[in-house]
UniProtKB/TrEMBL annotation:
An example Gene Ontology biological process: proteolysis
InterPro entries reported for this sequence: M3A_MIP, MetalloPept_cat_dom_sf, Neurolysin/TOP_dom2, Pept_M3A_M3B, Pept_M3A_M3B_dom
Major subcellular location class: mitochondrion
Cofactor entry: Zn(2+)
Keyword Glycosyltransferase: no
Protein name: Peptidase M3A/M3B catalytic domain-containing protein
Keyword terms: Hydrolase, Metal-binding, Metalloprotease, Mitochondrion, Protease, Transit peptide, Zinc
Family that this chain belongs to: Belongs to the peptidase M3 family.
Organism name: Micromonas pusilla (Picoplanktonic green alga)
Pfam family, one: Peptidase_M3
An example molecular function term from Gene Ontology annotations: metalloendopeptidase activity
Length: 367
């Protein structure tokens, strides 16, 4: 051992460094996130923020694809007219099993379509791989993942468009990851953790000191995490700019190694081919830039509407009416300018890019 940090050491060492610097015990943190509490807490969150209620209901015969899948009916809350009106359905497929899709994802089953009494109500599935059984607990990272996917679900379920091909996440890729990244912020907010976190045995809320240490851990290696996201996005763009007529067996690996060498602190490890484990390279097909793009927009939205009081109903209404309900039926630039002002986009070069100021301020907040 010569003390050199290798590519495969990155995640392990970052986790160890965060735990040591912030005095965090991952098992102790997870004990405050029983799966059932997290699900009910998310229900309380969307009720407070968006005025919608989640109710677990029984499946119709033949409706589910596995006995462990759960069904949540989404209905209007008690704010004004339409109380109790069904809005849509969210299926939860959260436990691991053999041959199941191994990652976390949001899948649209049925899109929203039409307006008025004949509207087609949307249905989506959130597929994750958390612990099995009623005693399962989540790591804080898994809580953040669940909220990320729930942001996608709210985008789909709260969409209100005439045409299904413009519903919810069927929008411009520049916007599709914004609600999910905004929802990640809820995982770190003390007020929201008051809804999500209760000790699995005692029922006590998460101590304020633990919350403070958890939030401090987020600020460590934030720039390193962002650098990795940018490296993924650049690799995705360059791979999809290759000329198919000149592709060779090693073309994609050559691009990945070249981008990593230029844009990462981690050395290239010959023969490890990290790009083969980068599933978004196929699924997103040159649009992975939407992840760092969304981080910028989400930081702006959080700062303007949620930072002071993330559970304020007005904040959720602004997001629902200004962004979520439009799906892909409104031009993204118009949505962002209406919600964030004319400075939300930088147009000095070709196209438009979000202002990174708020996102970079979040990186520096703990320094």
């Amino acid at each position: 051992m010569d003390g050199t940090v290798r590519g495969w050491d990155r995640s392990y060492l970052i986790g160890k460094a965060r735990a040591k610097a912030c005095e965090l015990d991952a098992a102790a943190v997870a004990s405050y996130f029983p799966l059932e509490r997290v699900i009910s807490g998310v229900g309380a969150l969307v009720d407070r923020v968006f005025g919608v209620k989640l109710t677990e209901v029984a499946m119709e015969p033949g409706e589910n694809w596995h006995a462990k899948v759960r069904k949540l009916r989404v209905t209007s809350g008690d704010r004004g007219a339409g109380e109790g009106q069904e809005i849509g359905t969210i299926y939860l497929d959260l436990e691991p099993r053999p041959r199941k899709f191994p990652h976390a994802a949001h899948f649209v089953i049925r899109c929203s379509r039409g307006v008025g009494p004949d509207k087609q109500r949307p249905a989506v599935a959130l597929v994750c791989n958390f612990g099995a059984g009623s005693a399962a607990t989540l790591s804080h990272s898994e809580v953040e993942t669940f909220l990320h996917e729930f942001g996608h679900a709210m985008h789909s379920v709260l969409s209100d468009t005439q045409y299904q091909h413009l519903s919810g996440t069927r929008c411009a890729m520049d916007m599709v990851e914004v609600p999910s990244h905004l929802f990640e912020y809820f995982a770190w907010d003390p007020a929201v953790l008051g809804l999500l976190a209760r000790h699995r045995v005692t029922g006590d809320p998460m101590p304020r000191e633990m919350i403070a240490r958890l939030r401090a851990s987020k600020e460590l290696f934030g720039a390193t995490d962002l650098q990795q996201q940018c490296m993924f996005a650049l690799t995705d763009l360059e791979v999809h700019a290759l000329d198919p007529a000149t592709l060779t067996e090693g073309s994609v690996s050559d691009v990945a190694a070249r981008v990593q060498a230029a844009h990462s602190l981690m050395r290239v490890e010959p023969g490890t081919s990290w790009e083969l484990r980068f599933g978004h390279l196929v699924g997103y097909a040159s649009t992975y830039y939407s992840y760092p793009y969304a981080k910028c927009v989400a930081a702006d939205l959080w700062g303007k509407f949620f930072r002071e009081d993330p559970l304020a109903p007005g904040a959720g209404e602004a997001l629902r009416e200004g962004m979520l309900r439009h799906g892909g039926a409104r031009e993204p630039g118009a949505i962002l300018r209406d919600m964030l002002g004319d400075g939300a986009l930088i147009t000095e070069h070709v196209g438009a890019a979000p202002d990174p100021t708020s996102m970079l301020a979040d990186l520096n907040r703990g320094r």
